[in-house]
From TrEMBL:
It comes from Microvirga aerophila. The lineage of its organism: Bacteria, Pseudomonadati, Pseudomonadota, Alphaproteobacteria, Hyphomicrobiales. SUPFAM superfamilies: Protein kinase-like (PK-like) (SSF56112). PROSITE patterns: PROTEIN_KINASE_DOM. The gene is aarF. GO terms for molecular function: ATP binding; protein kinase activity. Keywords: ATP-binding, Cell inner membrane, Cell membrane, Kinase, Membrane, Nucleotide-binding, Transferase, Transmembrane, Transmembrane helix, Ubiquinone biosynthesis. Pathway: Cofactor biosynthesis; ubiquinone biosynthesis [regulation]. This is Protein kinase domain-containing protein. It comes from the Bacteria.
Length: 523
């Protein structure tokens, strides 16, 4: 019960900050039950005067609440189906920048993680050069067989796991209350959203997994002439420390430096788009945070990506889906685009393929009346997902992440080359993948894979039959005897219900007292 009260207090504080910063203005009262509408009106009475418009209010509130909520805001930026397109666009600007912690604290954590003094690990170790909510980065030098090498050392922020664990528990409690008291909101799956955030943060806080992502992307792109990633130093990497080769290059948003160095901005813009599409369609594994701060051009003119905490994956079905809809729009074959949605199982079969193709035509035709440099592929995917909601297409997290990443990638490419023709640039990558995977060679490989799968199933048939027999016997017993409850179980259920009513009454008094205390402290 004490834990519940602690979560309640944390959620009351979060609610107060959201109300004070004006973030509750984003809530649509018409979607709430009458009691919640009254609560919303009361909460909005404490808004600061002169707060900004739109999701700027939400960004300010999340920043004030701390690192966990900043991460939550960044996660919501990938879910326009929950917060709306406008709010998601504003939340993309939510910056994950925090004050650095002292160098001595980094040294302590590195020595603890790697089991050796800092002087034995690095020839030099700098002050922090960049800091975020989960980790910060230092520049260092190590001695290798090839000589002195410059490396980037990423160190997890002290106490960050404990802080995130506390905040996530409070978020879980809030999600449960939300589902209980606002039944219409269950379609948004608030508990699932919090658990997805928890998994994402857990991955980001284990730097060994980021090193593995770097290694996998490096293996996928080793033959790409215009893209590379840094190399992880596995001997200097643990859960709390990640060491990679240092990147000397120019950030892609520094146009003056790019031109001064003599690089071709048009070629760089093309490389950004084609590299992203190769990773997504060819490999099914892509960097999902490709903003200009994470992209460089090295002295040889190759693109280099850094910071691999957020990655996206696409299965073969999603890759085929993406490739075919892009090629379908290029060729204006809207019926094929519609059929791909149905074949993938994304649109329920009770809808008409022809009606869906007509809706897609409403998206595709206007873009063919415009100049190539005016067509946004990311906007097209956004409109496509909006149309699919009308045809009961369930939200696909991996496709939403892909679409949001494409928005950022397209922005980077267009900043380099404002006249970039997205379709001409994309077509070679898309066509090559389709010819390779959906042509004769791809069909033969799929047939071979299918035969192996069928052989495995045939080999497992005896075991499958035995398990099926056991399940059928259990079902027969259940049908004959039914489900019985012991007298002690029935009594325990009654006691639990009674406790729930008592604690519900107590919680109302605690909420009222807590609000009074918070208001007195804030004002």
């Amino acid at each position: 019960m004490i834990g519940s009260l602690v979560h309640l207090a944390r959620n009351l504080r979060a609610g107060f900050v959201l109300a004070r910063e004006g973030a509750l203005a984003l809530v649509d009262p018409s979607a709430l039950p009458p009691s919640a509408r009254i609560a919303l009106r009361v909460a909005r009475l404490i808004e600061k005067p002169g707060v900004g418009d739109g999701a700027a209010r939400l960004s300010a509130a999340l920043t004030r609440l701390g690192p966990s909520y900043v991460k939550f805001g960044q996660f919501l930026a990938t879910r326009p189906d929950i917060v709306g397109v406008a709010a998601a666009r504003d939340l993309e600007r939510l910056q994950d920048r925090m004050p650095p912690f002292p160098r001595a604290e980094s040294v302590r954590m590195i020595e603890l993680a790697l089991g050796r003094p800092i002087d034995q690990l690095f020839l030099e170790f700098s002050e922090p050069i960049a800091a975020a909510s989960i980790a910060q980065v230092h520049k260092a030098f190590i001695k290798t067989q090839e000589g002195i090498e410059t490396v980037a050392v990423k160190v997890v922020r002290p106490g960050v796991r404990e802080g995130f664990a506390r905040d996530l528990q409070a978020m879980r409690a809030a999600a449960r209350l939300f589902e209980r008291f606002v039944p219409d909101a269950r379609r948004l799956k608030p508990m699932e959203i919090v658990e997805t955030l928890a998994r994402s943060v857990a991955v980001e806080m284990d730097l060994r997994l980021e090193a593995a992502a770097v290694s996998e992307l490096a293996e996928n792109t080793k033959d790409d002439p215009d893209f590379r990633v840094p190399k992880p130093e596995w001997d200097l990497t643990t859960r709390d420390v990640l060491t990679t080769t240092w990147i000397d290059g120019i950030r892609l948003n520094d146009l003056a430096a790019i031109e001064a160095a003599g690089f071709d901005r048009v070629a760089l813009g093309r490389a950004v788009i084609q590299s992203f599409l190769r990773h997504a369609i060819r490999d099914g594994f892509f960097h999902a945070d490709m903003h200009p701060g994470n992209l460089f051009v090295d002295p040889t003119g190759r693109l280099v990506a850094v910071d691999f905490g957020i990655m996206g994956r696409l299965g073969m079905k999603e890759r085929r889906f993406l490739a075919e809809i892009l090629l379908g729009f290029i060729r204006r074959d809207y019926l094929r685009v519609a059929r791909v949605h149905f074949e993938a199982g994304y649109v329920p079969p009770h809808h008409s393929v022809e009606d869906f193709a007509q809706a897609i035509r409403a998206i595709g035709e206007p873009i063919h009346d415009r100049r190539a440099d005016e067509i946004s592929m990311a906007k097209l995917l956004t409109l496509l997902f909006e149309i699919t909601y009308l045809f009961d297409m369930a939200t696909r997290i991996e496709l939403v992440m892909l679409q949001k990443t494409m928005v950022v990638v397209e922005g980077v490419a267009r900043n380099l080359d404002p006249k970039l023709d997205m379709w001409t640039t994309s077509e070679p990558v898309v066509r090559e993948w389709i010819e390779r995977n959906l042509g004769p060679i791809g069909r033969m490989e799929q047939a071979g894979s299918g035969l192996l799968t069928l052989a495995g199933v045939i080999g497992d048939l005896p075991d499958i039959a035995l398990r099926a027999e056991r399940v059928l016997n259990q079902l027969e017993d259940l049908t004959a005897k039914g489900v019985t409850l012991e007298r002690e179980s029935i009594a325990a259920i009654g006691r639990a219900e009674a406790r729930g009513h008592r604690w519900g009454t107590a919680a109302l008094w605690i909420i009222a007292l807590s609000l009074m205390i918070i208001l007195l402290r804030e004002f």
